[in-house]
Amino acid sequence: xxxxxxxxxxxxxxxxxxxxxxxxxxxxxxxxxxxxxxxxxxxxxxxxxxxxxxxxxxxxxxxxxxxxxxxxxxxxxxxxxxxxxxxxxxxxxxxxxxxxxxxxxxxxxxxxxxxxxxxxxxxxxxxxxxxxxxxxxxxxxxxxxxxxxxxxxxxxxxxxxxxxxxxxxxxxxxxxxxxxxxxxxxxxxxxxxxxxxxxxxxxxxxxxxxxxxxxxxxxxxxxxxxxxxxxxxxxxxxxxxxxxxxxxxxxxxxxxxxxxxxxxxxxxxxxxxxxxxxxxxxxxxxxxxxxxxxxxxxxxxxxxxxxxxxxxxxxxxxx
Amino acid sequence: xxxxxxxxxxxxxxxxxxxxxxxxxxxxxxxxxxxxxxxxxxxxxxxxxxxxxxxxxxxxxxxxxxxxxxxxxxxxxxxxxxxxxxxxxxxxxxxxxxxxxxxxxxxxxxxxxxxxxxxxxxxxxxxxxxxxxxxxxxxxxxxxxxxxxxxxxxxxxxxxxxxxxxxxxxxxxxxxxxxxxxxxxxxxxxxxxxxxxxxxxxxxxxxxxxxxxxxxxxxxxxxxxxxxxxxxxxxxxxxxxxxxxxxxxxxxxxxxxxxxxxxxxxxxxxxxxxxxxxxxxxxxxxxxxxxxxxxxxxxxxxxxxxxxxxxxxxxxxxxxxxxxxxxxxxxxxxxxxxxxxx
Lengths: 319, 342
Hints:
The complex is a heterodimer of chains A (319) and B (342).
Chain A: H1 3-8, H2 14-20, H3 23-40, H4 44-58, H5 71-89, E1 93-95, E2 106-110, H6 118-130, E3 137-141, H7 143-147, H8 151-157, E4 161-162, H9 165-173, E5 177-180, H10 185-188, H11 205-213, E6 217-223, E7 233-234, H12 236-242, E8 248-249, E9 269-272, H13 289-314
Parallel strand pairs in A: 1-9, 2-5, 2-6, 3-4, 3-5
Antiparallel strand pairs in A: 6-9, 7-8
Helix pairs in contact in A: 5-6, 9-11, 11-13
Chain B: E1 2-3, H1 8-18, E2 27-30, E3 42-45, H2 52-60, E4 64-67, H3 74-77, H4 80-100, E5 106-112, H5 140-157, E6 162-168, E7 170-172, H6 179-184, E8 188-192, E9 198-199, E10 201-203, H7 204-216, E11 221-225, E12 231-232, H8 233-239, E13 243-247, H9 253-261, H10 269-277, H11 284-288, H12 298-310, H13 317-331, H14 337-341
Parallel strand pairs in B: 1-2, 1-4, 2-3, 4-5, 5-6, 6-11, 7-10, 8-13
Antiparallel strand pairs in B: 9-12
Helix pairs in contact in B: 1-7, 2-4, 4-5
């Protein structure tokens, strides 16, 4: 421990100093600190913040909400890790972010694609980075997400929760922006040949939830995620053995091994559409299948229509 | 009448009620005399698994029965089958005795949030109306939901008796010892790799307060009782200054058996699931209908427990803080300008 201090202590009589005075270590430390500070220059303040952040994390001095969402970790660790992918790899263009209210509940409903649900992560980042209030999009995940170790942990810390009626109700009741991908595995695991064709929107549970909470539904169309891992086939047998919904075979996976896990750098556009109001319906509408199916179809058609427009607007996928 | 006074919380509740001016007479029932006294409460020896309990109720004619004899850990009972017998048969006998009695007009059951189970498909927050047992699968979870099933049956048969079920989150505090509190005190704490379950706690003081509140007041129904805030396991262990040992799973016979045989921890399947998936309960009804506000939140309860019991492991928050200060002093300008800016 004292070796580097010895080296750093200035002056010819540093050895004696070290033996004689206990102040020598402090002196040496101050010198080392000086050197590091000079090297870092203006970054000292950032470093300071980093140290107190690390200290807080290590001392367990932080808060999680009832869903396990850790805002500090999400903003300081998870989002900065994804941001390069968002900015430089997918070059995400965000349109209509002002359709998300500045406060209060809203339900963002989006199309799902890309074999691996990067689209939900990118949407989460889009809402946080582009929205003036830097709101956190609370996404809903399938049971599988919460079965897997590590993934389940990160999902909860990042603000996801299980896609079930009770959790949506609780989040919307709390005034959060909730993101849902009603196609689920049908959307994310569809073959490349069916790209940008919306799959079935489940039972419309998300519409009931929005009606109950009287939260606006914001249709969200995501272009670009279809091309990141073009799925040309599904190893169905392997998927059954592993208990997974699908095992993708893409032009790069599994042929290139871990390299195949790198998403292709497609150009992304995320558009948040006009909010669909739900507060004009009466209280029983949530249990009226006609209303629910009508609204579900309206949302689905809006997203499908916008997808075609955006595709034309974007041009070539890797341009 | 408090049933289950040989254990810590039962004894403390009996003691507390016995000094309460609103209560004339307190009878503590259990198989063995409580080790640390129950204050001025009378002790009646009865095995809850037999009709003894009926005779005690007939003799003493209580108007309120507090059932606290549901054991969460098998080591308390001396094995899984006595545990199940005490929990299930014991509750049945007690309810049978109450049903026949003409003096009993209120029943308070100390249940647990374990009835909800824990798992990947569990909602983030359980409310009281969610059917217990949908996620619960075995062991103590099953006991707890069976016990509640019998209690519900009982309240159908005797609608004139007010039944309050308190589903308490895990109780911690400076004195109580539970499977979970001892788990937090392991020198090296095994955790499930890649999992960070969130959970709520109740301070032992709040636990006694809410039981007293429900015993003396009039609050029929089912209530979750837990601190409103949450901890995640990693955070709790950091606050306690524990080292962690991530294991692929806590549930394998190898890991579980090794921990039990070495006397480190006795975790049953319910606890393993709890420590893998975590659990959260909604406490709105506790505040609004039960009109109870815990004095300690989850974090406060845990810190109180750590301060009294853990004595801060050698990686405790104080060490981290002093290391942080040291590093900051080292790196900040001599005048400490950065520090004052931030």
